[in-house]
């Protein structure tokens, strides 16, 4: 058993309409699935990804309309990376972010890669990372109808950063339970200890977790602009069953196997309280919509279909801006 990389990252927004505008019109990602939180159908669950929503390209958002401000801190997924094809793409994005008055830190370098940190309109902490020299997990393919040129478009998720008060507990789960490998380290300008890098599968930008240790920070108070969980890729349901056995043997409280219709999942919290998900690569978002029509209408899994009228009555359109 070996996790194949990052599957998706799920975050929180207070306004689905503004969120849709930012991620489709400014970042040029495709809305591949417009659905609801299956555990609370009163709220949107929006999936932005590459052309067909390949595993490893999905950045998703729950709309929680009363979500307050995020107070950044420990025990958190503190940054999400978005892959772009090359260093030249970062220059394009720097100009585009300036054009739309998006807060950013300018182009820099992290772990031997060119990067461009920025924030969305709600303070979501993001960073473009260049795949110029990537030799690991393959990237996705930007949507041909994106407002962003395909040569510079977002191709998937890059490394996620975890901020924790103590390295050892989370490191043990990553390496001894989930099978990640220690891949190196680099200086952290925000702390006294180096950032530690762990990788899985074929490695590279699509399969890394970066660990930041900041003991002095208080625990993060999540809200709009925070990340809810990170999911890692599992080949299929049979392998997910084996992961369930392993997680249970470790006595880690978990959700058990959950059918999300577009993939199957297993959720658990590691010792620093961060929510991890293991999710299968398939069956995929074209299970109930053709690839060319992804995200155009409200998609509901079969067990919610009988409540469609009630659910739609409580949701506002995201496309009108």
Nearest-integer average pLDDT: 97
Largest sheet report: 8 strands, mixed
Helix/sheet category: alpha+beta
Strand residue percentage: 25-35%
Number of domains: 1
Give the H and E element order: EHEEEEHEEEEHEEEEHEEEH
Low-pLDDT runs of 5+ residues are: none
Alpha carbon gap, first and last residue: 45 Å
Major sheet: arrangement of strands: 2-3-4-1-13-16-15-14
The count of β-strands is: 16
CATH topology: 2,3-Dihydroxybiphenyl 1,2-Dioxygenase, domain 1
Based on the coordinates given, report the CATH architecture: Roll
What is the CATH class?
Alpha Beta
Query: Helical content, roughly?
Result: 10-25%
- CATH H level, superfamily name: 2,3-Dihydroxybiphenyl 1,2-Dioxygenase, domain 1
The oligomerization state is single chain
- Overall 3D form: globular
The rounded Rg comes to 18 Å
Number of helices: 5
């Amino acid at each position: 058993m070996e996790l194949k990389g990052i599957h998706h990252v799920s975050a929180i927004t207070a306004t689905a309409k503004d969120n849709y505008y930012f991620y489709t019109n400014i970042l040029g990602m495709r809305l591949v699935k417009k659905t609801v939180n299956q555990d609370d159908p009163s709220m949107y669950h929006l999936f932005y990804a590459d052309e067909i929503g390949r595993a490893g390209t999905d950045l998703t958002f729950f709309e929680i309309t009363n979500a307050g401000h995020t107070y950044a801190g420990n025990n958190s997924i503190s940054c999400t990376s978005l892959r772009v094809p090359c260093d030249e793409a970062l220059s394009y994005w720097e100009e585009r972010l300036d054009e739309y008055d998006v807060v950013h830190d300018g182009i820099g370098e992290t772990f031997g890669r060119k990067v461009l940190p920025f924030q969305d309109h709600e303070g979501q902490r993001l960073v473009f990372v260049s795949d110029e020299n990537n030799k690991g997990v393959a990237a996705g393919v930007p949507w041909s109808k994106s407002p962003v040129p395909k040569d510079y478009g977002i191709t998937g998720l890059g490394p996620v950063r975890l901020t924790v008060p103590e390295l050892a507990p989370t490191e043990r789960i990553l390496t001894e339970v989930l099978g990640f490998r220690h891949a190196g380290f680099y200086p952290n300008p925000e702390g006294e200890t180096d950032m530690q890098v762990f990788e899985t599968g074929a490695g590279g930008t699509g399969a890394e977790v970066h660990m930041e240790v900041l003991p002095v920070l208080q625990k993060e108070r999540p809200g709009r602009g925070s990340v809810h969980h990170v999911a890692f890729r599992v080949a299929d349901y049979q392998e997910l069953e084996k992961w369930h056995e392993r997680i249970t043997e470790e006595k880690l409280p978990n959700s058990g196997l959950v059918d999300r219709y577009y993939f199957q999942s297993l959720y658990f919290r590691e010792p620093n309280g961060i929510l991890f998900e293991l999710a299968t690569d398939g069956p995929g978002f074209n299970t109930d919509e053709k690839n060319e029509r992804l995200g155009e209408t409200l998609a509901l899994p079969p067990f919610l279909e009988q409540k469609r009228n009630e659910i739609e009555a409580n949701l506002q359109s995201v496309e009108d801006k």
